[in-house]
Amino acid sequence: MSTGYLGPKMSYSFLATSKMGYNDGVPFKTIFDLFDAVEKGGIDRAVVPVENSLEGQVGQTLDLLFSKDVSIIEEYYLRVVHCIAATDNADVKIVHSHPQALMQCSNYIEKHGYAVIEETSTTAGIEKLFNEQNKGHAVICSEEAASACKLTILDRDIGNEHDNFTRFFVITKKGLAKPQGDKISIAFTLLNKPGSLASIVDVLAKYGIDMTKIESRPIKFNPFSYIFYIDFIDNGFSKQAMDEISQKTVSLKILGKYRKAIGPVMKQ
């Protein structure tokens, strides 16, 4: 059994894969490659990022969930904790990392007056430190990556926001998935007319179903038309609700039924 993740090794996707107990991880370069490998049977499952609590949705993942022959079988929330690390204790002048990590640590970077160099991944930044051995250079990465690569951690938890979580889905080829759990994800399209989206929400409300998320993505081949995505909790009336929803949509796809993961605690 093999599990694909968005590489390289020691990326946050790798950490999520490991923390979920999948120790047969295979790195892939792109999200599309992961979906393609699952659909064609090259791997049994894949761990893909779907949204970040600070940056929002991962659009490509949502698009491919709708278009590819796959199903969601699991979800997981990973707290993203950035540190700054180097090969020695020299005064840091320049930091390397993925653009998103640099942005999420921008306050710390600005406070210390560091110059930045963008890399394709946090792991690529680590590799550059070792390959070039430049004094005064550091990398922003996870503590796990720094420790695994025997870097000196100069400071911990340096992100702008403490509550930085990425939600991941585990996907497998449609037909192989065994629906189980209490959370359901669907995607659908509608006619562009007043009240069409409200009618879907009304059905969920009618059956007392807790909708936990709603968002949209543009349809690439039909400008200013949208695919809608909804997550909700199954309370025993989901079949009745789905039967009614199917009558109100142009197209409808059940993306998966899976166990609700323990997510971040929301502040009141």
Model description:
This protein has 3 domains: 1-80 and 164-175, Periplasmic binding protein-like II (D-Maltodextrin-Binding Protein, domain 2, 3-Layer(aba) Sandwich), CATH 3.40.190; 82-155, D-Maltodextrin-Binding Protein, domain 2, CATH 3.40.190.10; 179-268, ACT domain (Alpha-Beta Plaits, 2-Layer Sandwich), CATH 3.30.70. It has helices at residues 12-19, 31-40, 59-67, 99-104, 106-112, 122-132, 143-148, 196-206, 238-246, and strands spanning 3-6, 25-28, 45-52, 56-57, 70-79, 82-86, 94-97, 115-118, 137-142, 152-155, 165-173, 183-189, 211-218, 226-233, 251-258. Helix 8 packs antiparallel against helix 9. The protein is elongated, with a radius of gyration of 21 Å. The chain is α/β, with parallel strands linked by helices and 268 residues long. The protein contains 9 helices and 15 strands. The model has no long low-confidence stretch (mean pLDDT 93). The strands form 3 sheets. Strands 1, 2, 3, 4, 5 and 11 form a 6-stranded mixed β-sheet that branches. Strands 8-7-9-6-10 form a 5-stranded mixed β-sheet. This is Prephenate dehydratase. It comes from Thermoplasma volcanium (strain ATCC 51530 / DSM 4299 / JCM 9571 / NBRC 15438 / GSS1). Residues 185-259 form the ACT domain. InterPro entries: ACT-like_dom_sf, ACT_dom, Preph_deHydtase, Preph_deHydtase_CS. It holds the Pfam family PDT.
